[in-house]
Amino acid sequence: MIYQVYVRSFLDSTGDGIGDLAGVRAGLPYLKKLGVDGIWLSPFYPSPQHDHGYDVADYCDVDPLFGDLDEFDRLVGAARRLGIKVLLDIVPNHCSSEHPWFREALAAPAGSPARARFHFADGRGPDGAEPPNNWHAMFGGPAWSRVTEPDGTPGQWYLHMFTPEQPDWNWREPEVAAEFDRVLRFWLDRGVDGFRIDVAAGLYKHPELPDSDDPEADARTRDSVNPLAWNQPEVHDVWRRWRSICEEYTERDGLDRLLVGEVSVPTAREHARYVRPDELHQAFFFDLLSASWDADAFRKVISEAMQDIAGTGSTVTWVLNNHDQVRTVTRYGEPATEGSGLGAARARAAALLMLALPGAAYIYQGEELGLPEVVDLPDDVLTDPIFRRTGSRARIRDGCRVPLPWSGQASPFGFTPGTESAKPWLPQPEYFAEYATDRALADTRSFWHLYRDGLQLRSQLPQLGEGTLRWLDAPPGVLAFERGDDLVCAVNFGTAPTPAPVSGTPLLASGPCPPGVLSGSTAAWWIRS
Ligand code: NOJ
């Protein structure tokens, strides 16, 4: 189980209102208590922060906002002493327009080797005033921006599948692959245990960059669906190459390394290609996250994953929340600002379901506190580029990124040192008081205890380890499956109680469950006697 640390919102050690690496180090004992195996750190590299670090200006350093390399080394050392693995977030599809190679490309003439590292092309139309093709960017608007040439004339265009500040690398240029080998080695040499790979179905584009039949599909679905821009066959060579680098390190010191890809592809079968034995170890299977709260929908995605991914000998990697998605408590509930309702009960049940599935599980900071999405942030504090680039229509990703509450009754809730005048980079609502970690730890009915207990059992019970699952008969609206010979997990997606599939008291339940009963919006685990 890996815990995603969104560094700028985890814990601030300096008082500037932005979380940092020293804050992560201070939070490690909390994470150890929760029972995490490893952490994934969101990007902390030097960056102008147009997309909160997913616009990297230097892949081998730490942005002063978050600390420095010495602090990074201290964090890795402290994690290692606690037995917590550290994964970094690496962004190989694009960089920042401030990256020295992109600046060099801007200063170089059309057709130069410096431009070949990116996708520069002449525009269409009489004076090249139209973009080279009709693709739209994922975050809205055209996927091309025009540059002014060094002599001041309007010039070529460059491709950016996200914002204009995130030019896409041209992976057909061997120097790019070699540079990323160097970056991987730089961090592996500093002791990291692996990488979460951003946009891992990206990197290569169709070699001719032709027009698309449905150019706005990515922006409309907010998914990587343009078949010319994503999931090109050549990308698998990169994962083989990265896998062999990891294995070289493992051969040297005997320690496992992990590559987990953010892979958005149309089917579980396509997905399985990314986790073949010589490619990525894991790839997020987002279909569970996308499923609505419905027994049939959940059963379908779990069955597909078991058949098409686990069935080929790979690990399925489950995820319910991350820094790009509305939090489960809100997603599964009414638009609530408090976590005491249906959404919270369902989010707890979903957590127990996920922790009972064979494979890897990732949880996103605050998920273990049952934090709801902050839905009422005022427009002027929103920083997500999607909001800007959709003409303020899509308020998507700020509400799950609000800094964590640690203690106390008022903002900053211990997130940032000092007094109440210290301002977290996104405002925390008053109701965050009831989710603060100190309260969660003190209340055995909290989300935190459910996650902690679930994780503990997951590491103790061999039934919850490797292996498969067997569906059991269950009434409509209920899912029940068995792990190993005797562990049963059942989830009641309805609101009315139903008979439990196993008599006796559950080992663990996401809500009150009298013996013999599976309450509404509840999941439970039993050992069959
Ligand atoms: C996926 C990341 O999770 C998201 O936050 C980012 O904006 C895009 N990739 C672009 O790097």
From TrEMBL:
Matching CDD domains: AmyAc_OligoGlu_TS
Q: Which InterPro entries match?
A: GH, GH13_cat_dom, O16G_dom_2
According to the entry, every stretch annotated as the Glycosyl hydrolase family 13 catalytic domain falls at 4-397
Which Pfam families does the record cross-reference, listed alphabetically?
Answer: Alpha-amylase
Which family does the UniProt entry place this protein in?
A: Belongs to the glycosyl hydrolase 13 family.
Spell out the PANTHER family in the cross-references: ALPHA-AMYLASE FAMILY MEMBER, NEUTRAL AND BASIC AMINO ACID TRANSPORT PROTEIN RBAT
* Protein name listed in UniProt: Alpha-glucosidase
Gene name, Swiss-Prot/TrEMBL: malZ
